[in-house]
Amino acid sequence: MQNSPILKIMDLALKQSPRPFERLERGKPVAEGRKAVAALAEKERGTAHPPNLPLIQGALYLTFDCFEEAHNAANDHEGTVAGNWIHAILHRREPDAGNSKYWYARVKSPAKVSEGIGREALALLKKIPAPGLESLTRKVEKSKAWEPEVFVDLCEEFRKKEPQEPAYKVLAALQEIEWKGLAEYILSL
C-alpha cells in the first residue's frame, strides 16, 4: 500500500477547522473523515492489506472524533503498543482519565519514539511556558521522554477551563505532537 491516501487523510484531518485536537475532549464525529478513513480498505481491495492498516485507520479515526471506530481498532489490537496507545488517547479524550492511565501503563513504546515526543513536547513547553504545566516540564526534563500519565492529569485539570487559556492551548498542541508520534510509529511498522 502506498502511503499517499493515508497522507492525504492525515492532511485532511490536520486541516480541519477547528483542528482535531484543539479540544481536550472529543467532539462530534466528522462524517467526511469517517468516510475517508473507512474507504482506505476499499482502495486496497484486491491487494494485500498491510498488517498495520487497521491501526492506521484507528489512529486516523481519533483525529475525526470517531470514537466507536477507533475503539474497535484498539480492541482488535489490544496488547500491542499501537492498540494500547490508541485506547489510552481515546479514553483521555472521552474523558475517562482513570481508564486512559490504565492503557498508558500498558503502552511500551520504543524509547526512540517516547524520547522524540518528549523532545518536541519539551521544546513547546519551554517556548510557551504556561502556568500550571510546570510539573510536566520538570518530569519530561528529568526523564528525557514523554510522560503521558502526568499529561492525562493535566488534561483532566484544564479540560473545563477556557480554550483560550495558555495552558489549555499548550495541552491541546501537545495532543497533536503525541498523535503524530503515534501515527509515525504505526506507519513504521
Summarize the structure.
This protein has helices at residues 4-14, 31-43, 53-63, 67-76, 81-93, 97-104, 111-127, 134-143, 148-158, 166-188. The chain is mostly helical.
Describe, in plain words, how this protein is organized in 3D:
- The chain has ten helices and no strands.
- It is mainly α and 189 residues long.
- The protein has one domain (4-188).
Q: Roughly what fraction of the amino acids lie in strands? A: under 5%
Name the assembly state: single chain
Runs in which pLDDT lies below 50 for 5 or more consecutive residues are none
Query: Helices and strands: which structural class?
Result: mainly alpha
User: Which whole number gives the mean pLDDT?
Assistant: 91
- The beta-strand count equals 0
Helix content: 55-70%
Run of helices and strands: HHHHHHHHHH
What is the total domain count?
1
Structural Rg: 16 Å
Cα-to-Cα separation, first versus last residue: 13 Å
Work out the helix count. Answer: 10
The biggest beta sheet reads: none
Query: Which descriptor suits the 3D outline?
Result: globular
Secondary-structure blueprint:
Blueprint: H1 4-14, H2 31-43, H3 53-63, H4 67-76, H5 81-93, H6 97-104, H7 111-127, H8 134-143, H9 148-158, H10 166-188
